[in-house]
Amino acid sequence: MIELININKSYKVQNRRTGLVGVVKDLILPTYSKIDALSNINLRIEKGEHVGIVGKNGSGKSTLTKIISSILRPTSGIIKFEGELISNDIKRYKRSIALMFGQRSQLYFNMAFLESIELFRLMYGVSKSDAKKRIDFLIESLSLKDLLKKSIREMSLGQRMRCEIAIILLHQPKIIFLDEPTIGLDVEVKEQFYSLIKDYTNKTEATLILISHDVSDIVNLSNRLLLLDNGFLKEDIETSKFISTHNSSKIVELSFYNRSELERVKGFSVVDIDKLNNTLSILVDKDLSVIELLEQMENRDTIKNISVRDQDFKSVLLNYYRSK
């Protein structure tokens, strides 16, 4: 569906000298350095895929997303959409995509939501008959009936999020770009967001491209990971496979009858201590069985309960970076 071939992006940045003489030289004879934001990116994203783009700050995540969404032009390389160069018909491509930025609202704060719907309908060239069907569906699916005459500034964060989703889905995009979509949302509203987006993409086979520092976004919305580092594509892998490959440890939570037993656990990496509930969480090798663990503990007879869980995605990602 989307194909990137030999994509490179570089920026020319002026060097800054110090002192008064340096300032004058910068004005008369400026010098520049080249910064490579992306280097030789080749990838293909198929219809219906959910792709998460991850990496450290400055790794090229935002640049790659902006290039795929046609906000930025690459320095070199080509991008194809459904087999055609997007540069051949950029308007068609832009009408096939939708963008949602968690830190920037597309809606006008002083405008009633119903008026915003009409504005975006005209912007995307959606006919009134098509728009009515889609709006009726979105109003019912997202429970928006009571919000139509409200201005955005009168809404809660969760209500605004539902309105944002309705706006980006109004023209039935084939590709949805999400940039930090759940920033500032509480856990309950996040779960609503995940459910709404997955429901739409499952029904329409829309492609999802996600960039987020929130690991729960990546885990809940992506089935494929693109991991960038200093502008290079280091990993292109299924999310589940990445987690299993780089998850070398697991967390064991031990619950004791007496609080004093917490201090007797020695020789393990302690993740968390909950003295109120007499529990201790330790990090152990994922291949270590519970029986083998107990054999290493002197106070195993005082354990009330044991539970085992995998590390979260954030820890797995840290394991990956530490191994490089």
Explain the layout of strands and helices.
Layout: E1 2-14, H1 19-28, E2 32-45, E3 50-55, H2 61-68, E4 76-81, E5 84-85, H3 90-94, E6 97-101, H4 113-124, H5 128-142, H6 157-169, E7 175-179, H7 187-204, E8 207-211, H8 215-221, E9 224-229, E10 232-238, H9 239-246, E11 249-256, E12 269-274, E13 279-285, H10 290-295, E14 303-310, H11 313-323
Parallel strand pairs: 3-8, 3-9, 6-7, 7-8
Antiparallel strand pairs: 1-2, 1-4, 4-5, 9-10, 11-13, 11-14, 12-13
Helix pairs in contact: 5-6, 6-7
Strand order of the largest sheet: 6-7-8-3-9-10
Coarse shape: globular
Number of contiguous helices: 11
CATH architecture of the largest domain: 3-Layer(aba) Sandwich
- Please compute the radius of gyration using only Cα atoms: 25 Å
Q: List the quaternary state of the chains.
A: single chain
Order of helix and strand elements from N to C terminus? EHEEHEEHEHHHEHEHEEHEEEHEH
CATH topology of the largest domain: Rossmann fold
Report mean pLDDT, rounded to a whole number.
Answer: 85
Could you name the CATH homologous superfamily of the largest domain?
P-loop containing nucleotide triphosphate hydrolases
